[in-house]
Amino acid sequence: MDSMPVNCDALDSLVLDFAQSERLLDDSPSSDSYQSRLLIRQIRRFLEDGEVDRAIDLLRFHVPAILDDHRILFRLQKQRFIELLRKGTAKDHDSAMECLRVVLAPCALDAYPEAYEEFKHVLLTLIYDKEDKSSPVANEWSERRRFDLAGSLSSILRAQLHAHDPLLSMTLRYLISIHKVFCIHQDIVSPISDITDRFLFEDRDPPIVPHESSYEAPPFEEVDVQALVHAAELTRQDAIDSLRFAKGDLFQAFQNELCRMKLNVLMLDELVREYCVYRGIVDSITTSLSDCTSQNEPYGTNGSSNCEVSGNTVRKEDARESNADLISSQNNDVEMRSAYDTTETPGDCSTSDINHQVKYCRRLRRSRSHATGQRRRKRWRGRIESFEATPDLDSTNLNVQKLACSVHSSRETPDEEQVSKSNSIFDNVNDMEDHKYEIILEMMELANKGMIAEVVEEVNALDPEFFVQNPVLLFQLKQVEFLKLVNVGNHAMALRVASTHLGPLAAKNDSLLKPLKETLLALLKPNEDVMTKGLSLLATSLQVAMSRRFGIEEPQLMKIMRATLHTHNEWFKLQMCKDRFEEFLKINILKELDAPVPSNGTFKTQADNETNGSSQISSSSSKITDYGSSPTQVASNESAFDENAILKVMEFLALPRSDAIHLLTQYDGNAETVIQQIFA
């Protein structure tokens, strides 16, 4: 499957917003939205654990208006009655009977039409044992009821408190869900399934049912209904209910539906942390083994509750397994790095090379500190959730331990000599890794500022073979240097750069001759925009190439984005329409790329020279043209038909947009004829 470049500046912004919104960084402010999300997560945990009393106390203290809705109150009290019976003690049985008489029975009279029948049905739990799987109330005893109630209430609270998840979380849910649908539709294997299957789960929270009758005629535009149907994979009736709950606000309904999708929050945190370190947003700090051995509590105690995973106990176990996979991969990565730094491999830097790089990096930072300024990086705080409940409740303090520590917590504590030796190796490896990041980020910063001559000089000093293996990247850098000189009127020096670097590179690579000619045209008509537009993309390409050279893995988040943005484009080409939600989720900005050179031909050559598809410039010129355009531009048939005709066929036949358009093509765009022929 192809992938496409990503606007990393836009992705940086989304990632930083997520990290700050979820208070994963030390300087993150605590917003009202964050506190509301924290409250919702705490209520959810209580309900999933069967502690309905504590959930009701939280609601009564923080959101009392929610309990004025007798529909919600009835469902809570019914679950409370079940949980009291489940405990099985005489005291709890008396409390259950009191709940039945004092709260549940009166509430059943006016909660909703079916409530009283449900009340009578739940009385059967008094005579049928919870272990009896064949009883008529086996579903009432099922723990699944806890998770369904927790999910429904979470959705209601999210909408009422305006506490939707950060944009990055919703964007990833949407892109990955489209990616999965596209792969199934096209019968292809996803290259990122090993990540996405552990990240986004198949089950969702129950849909929100509004107060009004589900069969009432919807006062909504059909175009909105169909947009929500296909974006959130809903039935038409569910889309109507969702719009009704959101009072007709399409984007509010869309957010509600996205947040129903369950994801592994801890895994998302790790993806974000990895990306932040790679991009220089946060410091590269790794927990030492001594810190890990001081932790005695198993990670699973609190860790699983931090995943938005509900449905059953098995799903929680799946989340723990996902965390274990992440931990294992981290430790394997440490071992690989250790091996890399102590043995020389073809095409990689040896330990002596690293020492040279460390010394050079120190000199480089000293010499450049005044010219470029020191990048102020944030410190990673991690997900540390503490929420104070009511004064008469114990406050719940969930401290999520660092993933690297959990592996060692269940092992025997090594002796002091082993710990000291391990720490020394671990710290040396991390020190080398940190210096690698510093070198790469320094080069990226210089490239972003257009200091191309300095970049080339210093990269050559670091690794004389680097540009030998990346000639197209050198060509691109020298193009920018040439254009910069032309724009300041230094034509003589510009021609020297062209004859010394651009000409010889093009002579060795025929595909560079055309961009070379177009670059030379700048001598006649300088254009500063051409030089500056693509600096960020070029800097990112430099970062990717240097990271690969230094043995640093590309962040998984970047891999996910490249693959899912590509399938997003392809999916909406098939649908022959523009995605109504891509601007809302900033997907359009993630796709906006400005080429660093006048010609797209260079990108083709760059892609051909990539060995594992991890460059930000990885597509042919024709594909870049497609990516820069709206999917509607390739939907040549769409303009031939009236939008109402398309929607009518989609609605009556329950078809995707593309299928409806193909049918209209066969019958001259007449929706009535299409419907008659299908039902004839």
TrEMBL record:
<dbReference type="Pfam" id="PF10607">
    <property type="entry name" value="CTLH"/>
</dbReference>
<feature type="compositionally biased region" description="Low complexity">
    <location>
        <begin position="614"/>
        <end position="630"/>
    </location>
</feature>
<dbReference type="InterPro" id="IPR006595">
    <property type="entry name" value="CTLH_C"/>
</dbReference>
<feature type="domain" description="CTLH">
    <location>
        <begin position="436"/>
        <end position="493"/>
    </location>
</feature>
<dbReference type="InterPro" id="IPR050618">
    <property type="entry name" value="Ubq-SigPath_Reg"/>
</dbReference>
<dbReference type="InterPro" id="IPR024964">
    <property type="entry name" value="CTLH/CRA"/>
</dbReference>
<feature type="region of interest" description="Disordered">
    <location>
        <begin position="600"/>
        <end position="635"/>
    </location>
</feature>
<feature type="compositionally biased region" description="Polar residues">
    <location>
        <begin position="600"/>
        <end position="613"/>
    </location>
</feature>
<protein>
    <recommendedName>
        <fullName>CTLH domain-containing protein</fullName>
    </recommendedName>
</protein>
<feature type="domain" description="CTLH">
    <location>
        <begin position="36"/>
        <end position="92"/>
    </location>
</feature>
